[in-house]
């Protein structure tokens, strides 16, 4: 009986070890992607124009997607897209389910302790969507309910900027905007470029606005596993080349330029971070 019990325990241990080995992320993502010829990117799928499902093609498209497409092409790899949320994207990366995050992710010191970031490939600032004429300054939001997304820097920034406000965190920004439309919150807060995307798609957009009230600067980086140096260097080299060739600006103009509903100015260039 003891022998049988020992064999069962040993068998279970082997299964657990095998599963752990399967789930473990590669030590060298660059080599692994080149070997598999597949790059798996975690992206948003309901956040135009960064990442959303195109109604005609049913494919995920957007600014973030075009950047990882360019990186996959440079690697000679097929691009596989996996939808993530603000809360799930870092766990998905560290657990080895994705190779890179391209999902409107702000670079900050806290996150940089857990993952590595590329050079800044998009730059924006955190603002609000409100009912038209309702907000002129931060004071107008004191003591009010404000919606944002779980696991986002927006969540932390607004708590610091307006301590008296009640922050309601939703799974994603479209849900937060729905709460604003229903009168459950007085404002939705996140990065201006994301807010512009949400507002552009709203059927009743004339009722809302993005006031000139900014509470932070938000540099976006592509996220990779900590100390995955070869892959980080490859990605950085690629996006610097995209800036130099004009491809990065063409991608920006495609999604944010004069021919789009967003009309944002490109106030940044991709440079090597200091």
UniProtKB/TrEMBL annotation:
InterPro entries: Bact_solute-bind_prot3, Iontro_rcpt_C, SBP_3_CS, Solute-binding_3/MltF_N. GO terms for cellular component: extracellular region; membrane; outer membrane-bounded periplasmic space. It comes from Geomesophilobacter sediminis. Belongs to the bacterial solute-binding protein 3 family. Keywords: Signal, Transport. One of its GO terms (molecular function) is ligand-gated monoatomic ion channel activity. It comes from the Bacteria. Residues 38-258 form the Ionotropic glutamate receptor C-terminal domain. This is ABC transporter substrate-binding protein. Residues 38-259 form the Solute-binding protein family 3/N-terminal domain. SUPFAM superfamilies: Periplasmic binding protein-like II. Residues 1-23 form the signal peptide. GO terms for biological process: amino acid transport.
């Amino acid at each position: 009986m003891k022998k049988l019990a020992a064999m069962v325990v040993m068998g279970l241990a082997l299964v657990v070890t095998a599963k752990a080995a399967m789930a473990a992320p590669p030590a060298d993502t660059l080599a692994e992607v080149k070997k598999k010829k597949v790059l798996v990117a975690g992206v948003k799928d309901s956040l135009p124009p960064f990442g959303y499902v195109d109604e005609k093609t049913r494919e995920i498209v957007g600014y973030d997607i075009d950047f990882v497409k360019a990186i996959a092409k440079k690697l000679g790899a097929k691009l596989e897209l996996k939808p993530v949320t603000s809360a799930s994207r870092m766990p998905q990366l560290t657990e080895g389910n994705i190779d890179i995050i391209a999902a409107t992710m702000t670079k900050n010191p806290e996150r940089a302790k857990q993952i590595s970031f590329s050079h800044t490939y998009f730059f924006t600032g955190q603002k609000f969507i409100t009912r038209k004429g309702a907000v002129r300054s931060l004071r107008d939001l004191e003591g009010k309910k404000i919606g944002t997304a779980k696991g986002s820097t927006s969540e932390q920034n607004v708590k610091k900027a307006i301590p008296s406000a009640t922050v309601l965190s939703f799974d994603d920004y479209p849900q937060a905007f729905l709460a604003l439309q229903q009168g459950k919150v007085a404002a939705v807060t996140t990065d201006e470029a994301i807010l512009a995307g949400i507002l552009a798609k709203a059927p009743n957009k004339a009722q809302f606005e993005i006031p000139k009230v900014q509470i932070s600067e938000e540099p976006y980086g592509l996220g990779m596993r900590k100390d995955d140096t070869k892959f980080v260097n490859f990605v950085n080299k690629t996006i610097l080349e995209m800036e130099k060739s004009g491809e990065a600006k063409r991608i920006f103009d495609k999604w944010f330029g004069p021919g789009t509903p967003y009309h944002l100015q490109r106030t940044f260039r991709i440079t090597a971070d200091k």
